[in-house]
Design goal:
Layout: E1 8-13, E2 16-23, E3 32-37, H1 48-53, E4 58-63, H2 80-93, E5 99-104, H3 106-118, E6 122-128, H4 137-153, H5 155-166, H6 169-174, H7 176-188, H8 191-202, E7 218-223, H9 231-240, E8 244-249, H10 256-259, H11 261-273
Parallel strand pairs: 3-4, 3-5, 5-6, 6-7, 7-8
Antiparallel strand pairs: 1-2, 2-4
């Protein structure tokens, strides 16, 4: 397990060095371990508020996905499947038990693929502003166009466009801290990694078939003003997962954990206490 009082650390697993933040449980026997999985193209720092708000009997870990933040790219051939298998190796390396995966957007895709691979070994799921469907042709083309624009114009206009898309109007006018955090996260990622991840997301598999097999407690969260995840996509999660709870965040877009962080923290702590 982790050393006492560890905050920021790294571990070498196969071809990559994974950077992560850990908030250790303050009790001798950790009841649950929550692994936080960030969205595209962000990093582990987007989860710092959630780590600090976890109750004392919970261990929290926020990791940088391959090629994001301070985690290296390794071979550079990204896919959601590769990201999920990196995560599984991380869990096994530290022999983590009673693991709950908390993923937003891309992090949710990774969580669902991980469940598909090792479902019986997980304790619960928190799926925020994400869904089980693969990109349709229109979605794929949008990602391809984004790659071309990024290569031509660079990260600054890409970052500004992202801000307009992912945040609610309320957040854009009232929460400069969240905006600066996302701008910083995008700047820290290389153009190569951003493009490789776009291709990975365009190529991801549809995980809808596994939803009826999810029997572990699952919390689904969605920002009311999310422009990237629609109600039909969320409805599939709610209709097909048996042990599911749902919370809508009225003042959020695509990132409720940053836009309404106090409410998000309350909801996940309530969920973690429920099983």
């Amino acid at each position: 397990m982790f050393k006492k009082e560890t905050k920021l650390s790294r571990v070498r697993i196969d071809d990559i060095s994974i950077s992560y933040i850990v908030k250790n449980s303050k009790v001798k026997e950790t009841e649950k371990t929550v692994i936080f999985l960030h969205g595209f193209p962000f990093n582990k720092n987007t989860w710092r508020n959630q780590l600090n708000a976890l109750e004392d009997n919970i261990t929290g870990i926020a990791i940088d996905i391959r090629g994001h933040g301070q985690t290296t790219s390794g071979h550079g051939f990204f896919s959601v499947d590769v990201f999920a298998k990196d995560l599984i190796k991380f869990i096994k390396h530290f022999n983590l038990k009673n693991v709950i995966l908390c993923g937003v957007s891309m992090g949710g895709y990774i969580a669902l693929r991980t469940y598909e691979l090792i479902g019986s070994e997980l304790k619960g799921l928190i799926l925020s502003d994400t869904h089980s469907f693969a990109d349709d042709n229109k979605g794929k083309q949008k990602r391809f166009d984004s790659i071309q624009a990024l290569l031509k114009y660079g990260k600054r206009p890409f970052s500004l466009g992202f801000i307009e898309t992912i945040f609610s109007e309320k957040t854009r006018t009232e929460n400069q801290e969240a905006i600066e955090l996302i701008k910083s996260a995008i700047r820290r990622n290389s153009v190569e990694s951003i493009c490789a991840t776009q291709l990975a997301l365009a190529a991801r598999t549809d995980t809808s078939a596994i939803l009826p097999t999810i029997t572990i407690p699952t919390l689904v969260i969605k920002g009311k003003d999310d422009k990237l995840v629609n109600d039909i996509q969320v409805k599939a999660l709610l209709d097909l997962i048996s042990a599911v709870q749902y919370v809508e965040f009225m003042g959020s877009g695509h990132l409720p954990n940053l836009e309404e962080s106090d409410k998000f923290n309350t909801e996940i702590n309530n969920f973690l206490r429920s099983f």
